[in-house]
């Protein structure tokens, strides 16, 4: 588990209503990252750790993109209609691969913007593709700003006055006819901090390898994902965001998240996690969470095969408050789980709630253990021992520190 930071700075319209937020790399833990890694870090932190809805709501998300993201070496797996991809100033606009990549992004529904642009002529091939042009009012002369305003009509683009720091600059840009405004005068970047579960690099590599094999099934991917608590949580979260917007059905398991995201988006997110430079943290709480998830899965089997996947997910999510140092109600609220899973996690109701209650009671130990699920104590103990052995085996492969033996009841 690690601390993370991501910045967001609002972009305002002419009436000073918020049109969107630029998402910014702000993590001081990794000062030497290159542009690709910084973009990957912003995407991962924004969507998988904070949640894009929590950061920008229904507003636009402006994301800086290096050449690698523009030409398709890496993807921007944000929702296209809500995302503005900013072409950084150091990207060559006459690069045929960049032009072709930008055209593909527009066809997929993304909005493109030129960042820190200097309008020197109308022969820039990207002017035909972008919808927004950002101008640095501190770096450009009044004549250059006026020229850009004059020429923008020929291309139908909106102009953003960025780095607006004084009232005089704001008034001058308004008088010229700029559409959008960004800068310290209006709002400084807000730093959003939090705790993140960092998936193991080996697990990400295994998934990439499997996704390159056309014969790989969703079940195989699910098995690898379930071996890593961080990946399970992140995929539940990003799929849950889609569910909350009505794009997917509500989730009942990690398998649902894997299937609903699809291989392309899974590959994109896993690749970004490999790029983002996050530290690989180990914590025995991760092993406890895995033991809990596997134990719930094993206990649910005799009660009904249809409960198995959901039981694993309930066991996993039940430990996330320990890992993220956040209330379980907040975590569950961000996952868009089906009602029976939410009820089991928050109210210990239903068959899944009974299984979870038994798992937690067994962890605590004591002579008075009585299974709510109707499972015999001897079978509960067997499930616990099998789950602990599985967790320790996985932790050994991933070089995690195994969890200590918890108190065994009976």
Summarize the structure.
49% of the residues lie in helices and 13% in strands. The chain has 410 residues and is α/β, with parallel strands linked by helices.
What this model shows, in words?
It is a single chain. The protein has 410 residues and is α/β, with parallel strands linked by helices. Residues 278-282 and 398-410 have low confidence and may be disordered. Strands 1-2-3-4-5-6-7-8 form an 8-stranded mixed beta barrel. The protein has 2 domains: 2-194, EAL domain (TIM Barrel, Alpha-Beta Barrel); 197-397, Orthogonal Bundle (Hypothetical protein af1432), CATH 1.10.3210. Helix 7 (201-211) packs across helix 10, helix 11 packs antiparallel against helix 12 and helix 11 crosses helix 17 (377-397). The protein is elongated. It is built from 17 helices and 9 strands.
